[in-house]
Amino acid sequence: MSNKAEVEDKEPVNEQAIANIYGAMRSEINQLHSKITELEMEVSEHSLVIGAIQPLDPSRRCYRMIGGVLVERTIKEVLPAVQRNKEGLEEVISRMNEALERKKKEVSEFEAKYKIRIRKSDGEVKDDGDRMEGSAQGVLVGPAGAKNE
C-alpha cells in the first residue's frame, strides 16, 4: 500500500502514467459502487426476513444460517440479531457512500488538474468544462473498462 501512496504523491511523468492512475481511481469507484449495491441487496433481504417473521409468535421455531451451519432457534432469539445485522449493514453502506463521494471528488480534482476528457465509445469526447483555446494540452483516456491497445 505504501508503494501506491508513493506513486500518487509524485507527479506522473507522462500521459500513460496519468492514464494508469486515472484508470485505477475509476476502478476503485466502480468497486465501491458494486460493493454498496451488494450490501443494499443484503439489507433488502434482511428487511424481507424481518417483515416475514415479525408478526409471528416469538416462541415459534425458525432456522438461521450461521457460518454455513443451519441452526434451530426461536423467532425471539433470531429477530433482534437480524435487526442488528441490518442496522450494521446500513451503517457500513453509509460510510462507503461517504468514501465514494470523497473518491469522486478526488477523481474530479485529478481530471481538472490534468485536463482529462473521456472518450466516448462512438468517438465523441466528453468535455465537462468550456473548450479552452490555445496551447492547453490535456490527457485523453478511453471509457473505464476499455482496454488500451
UniProtKB/TrEMBL annotation:
CDD domains: Prefoldin_2 (cd23163). Keywords: Chaperone, Coiled coil. GO terms for cellular component: prefoldin complex. Residues 122-133 have a biased composition (Basic and acidic residues). SUPFAM superfamilies: Prefoldin. Pfam families: Prefoldin_2. Belongs to the prefoldin subunit beta family. Residues 86-113 form a coiled coil. The lineage of its organism: Eukaryota, Viridiplantae, Streptophyta, Embryophyta, Tracheophyta. It comes from Protea cynaroides. This is Prefoldin subunit 2. The keyword Chaperone applies. The keyword Disulfide bond does not apply. GO terms for molecular function: unfolded protein binding. InterPro entries: PFD2, PFD_beta-like, Prefoldin. Residues 122-149 are annotated as: Disordered. It comes from the Eukaryota. GO terms for biological process: protein folding; response to cold.
